Amino acid sequence: MGSKERAKERREKRLQEISLLRTIPYSDHQRWWSSETIAVVTGGNRGIGFEISRQLAAHGLTVVLTSRDSNVGLEATNVLQEGGLNVIFHQLDVLDPLSIKQFSEWLQETYGGLDILVNNAGVNFNLGFDNSVEYAQKVVATNYFGTKNMIQAMIPLMKPSTTGARIVSVSSRLGRLNGRRNRLEDVTLRQQLGDLDLLSEELIDRTVSNFLQQVEEGAWTSGGWPQTFTDYSVSKIAVNAYTRLMAKVLSDQPEGHKIYINCYCPGWVKTAMTGYAGNILNVL
What we know:
Keywords: NADP, Oxidoreductase. By secondary structure, this protein is an alpha/beta fold. It is 44% helix and 11% strand. It has a 6-stranded parallel sheet, sandwiched between helices. Helix 4 (97-111) runs parallel beside helix 5 and helix 7 runs antiparallel to helix 8 (230-250). The radius of gyration is 19 Å and the shape is globular.
């Protein structure tokens, strides 16, 4: 059996495992949440964000579905509400500090804060074998800075809990530091981004700023950046690094105020972002 066949076999096995897991209900002792648990999902109007919102609400949580576009956000929310799910819509643009501020104030006033933040909002303008950096500024701003801004804004609003609050950011395998392909060529930079003792917000910001500067100068192709979906990959490298950094920072939270943070790769999902070319359909 060749490598492609083995990869296909592993993928099909994993899809079967995921499908099975989705049919197993949570037992009472596994449930740390209730209908009063507030989950905020950014970019929840379609694709993975919509499915995350649906499944969280289906498990009995109160979901605040957010979208930059109010029309599509309300439409998505109505669909879920018609299915009997407790989903509320609020407009939110993760690139707009004022929008984040207004959302934070509304969230505090309406629910007294939140328990779960899912950073799903993100963009990618490349498909197939394309690798344009025409929209690199927007990709990095949305995927990295938007995620970072939401984390910073929501942490003070996280509700005290014996089980801890949660922050989960959607990322990608394209953001791995240790991949054999499509990785940063600068060994020193990889080591710095992967070493918690060396990692800092300033280092992450400087890395993405250097990339954007090279894009502006037309020199990015020789800068040692990942060569597949370069702007998207760089943005997810930053998301992964910032998540590791915040995990270290938040590890000092006292009992009753714990905040657990992580990021994950959902796989190659059949959504608008992948041009509906993914191999996973409606599966988290």
